[in-house]
Each structure stands twice: as structure tokens, then as C-alpha cells.
Design a protein that fits this description.
It contains five helices and ten strands. By secondary structure, it is α+β, with helices and mostly antiparallel strands. The chain has a five-stranded mixed sheet with strand order 1-2-3-4-5. The chain folds into two domains: 94 residues, 3-Layer(aba) Sandwich (Aminopeptidase); 61 residues, no CATH class. The chain is globular, with a radius of gyration of 16 Å. Helix 1 runs antiparallel to helix 2.
Length: 177
């Protein structure tokens, strides 16, 4: 427990989503969604959750491949959000809003994948999936290697077969940075 907050990892993150506090509910809340949030439980060295002691505010913390830690969107009771921001500040964790745009293009989190179900992800929702190696490299921005987007609330992924084909050739391709 740190500064009126708890740091959850592994299965504890999944369990939190099953029964969060009154103000920290999520589209990933519930027993069925547990199969989606198992993705967090399977990657305790890459993602954690900081919560207030009363469980009424929460945020994911991403442990990036370059060693940087990033606090994702904070959900919950407004008066509790300060505790999480305070925790992040004192634990050398970057606030997503403070990252320069150029740096956002470079931030990556490589995670293991066990199945085809994924949670909705606020910011690290663009990915390069390699099914053979059972890994996904998440990023903040789409780029030419992006082949999935984790922005569905039903555990599915949006898959891109050929990113260059999706866009009109006369328009710049926003996926090819």
C-alpha cells in the first residue's frame, strides 16, 4: 500500500475488474469479462493497476519496453483521483498527457497472449500481433505494422489485414507514420 493506494498485479487486477468499487466500474466489469481481463493477469511485469484503498478510483500502469512507466486514464470518484496522481508522481511514473507527441510514437509494451480475447484498452490499443510467437506489441499510436486495435467492449479485436488497402491511395495513410 502506497500513499493511500494499492498496487495490484496479475490475477488481482482481473479480480478487481470482477468486483470494483462503486465509482470504479468498467465496461470490463463482471464475471464474463474476466476472460478479457485475463490478458492483464497473464502479464504482471507489463501492466498493473493502482487503486485507492476504498476501491473507488483506479488506473492502469504500463511498464514499457524502454523502462518507462505510464499511468493510463484514471477512473473513479473525483476526490479520489488526486491520490492516484500523487502516487504516480512519487513513484516516477509519467502521466500520459505529459508525453511529447514524438515520444508517443516510440512507446511500446510487449505482452504475451494466451487466447483471442482482449480487454478494451484506453490508450495502448494499437497492436502488432504475432500469433506464432504468442505476443502482441502495444503502442499508443497506429503505424505501418499495426494489425489489430483493442477498442472493443466485447473481448474481440479489430483486425487489419492490409493497412495500406484500407485507405484511399489519394489520402495520406494515418497508419503509416
Amino acid at each position: 500500500m502506497l500513499m493511500n493506494c494499492n498496487l495490484l498485479t496479475g490475477k488481482d487486477v482481473m479480480d478487481f475488474y470482477i468486483s470494483p468499487g462503486k465509482y470504479a466500474a468498467s465496461s470490463m466489469t463482471g464475471e464474463i469479462q474476466g476472460r478479457f481481463t485475463k490478458f492483464y493477469a497473464d502479464n504482471p511485469s507489463k501492466v498493473a493497476m493502482v487503486t485507492t484503498q476504498d476501491r473507488n478510483a483506479r488506473a492502469l500502469i504500463w511498464f514499457c519496453d524502454d523502462g518507462m512507466r505510464i499511468l493510463d486514464h484514471v477512473y473513479g470518484a473525483r476526490h479520489q483521483i488526486y491520490s492516484i496522481h500523487n502516487w504516480a508522481y512519487y513513484n516516477n511514473t509519467y502521466f500520459l498527457d505529459s508525453l511529447p507527441y514524438k515520444k508517443r510514437n516510440e512507446v511500446r509494451v510487449t505482452m504475451c497472449i494466451d487466447d483471442h480475447y482482449f480487454p478494451y484498452v484506453d490508450n495502448f490499443q494499437f497492436g502488432e500481433v504475432n500469433w506464432e510467437e504468442r505476443k502482441i506489441i502495444l503502442s499508443l499510436c497506429s503505424h505501418k505494422k499495426t494489425n489489430v486495435q483493442l477498442s472493443s467492449h466485447d473481448g474481440e479485436i479489430y483486425q487489419f489485414i492490409d493497412c495500406n488497402y484500407i485507405f484511399d491511395k489519394t489520402e495520406p495513410n494515418p497508419m503509416a507514420l
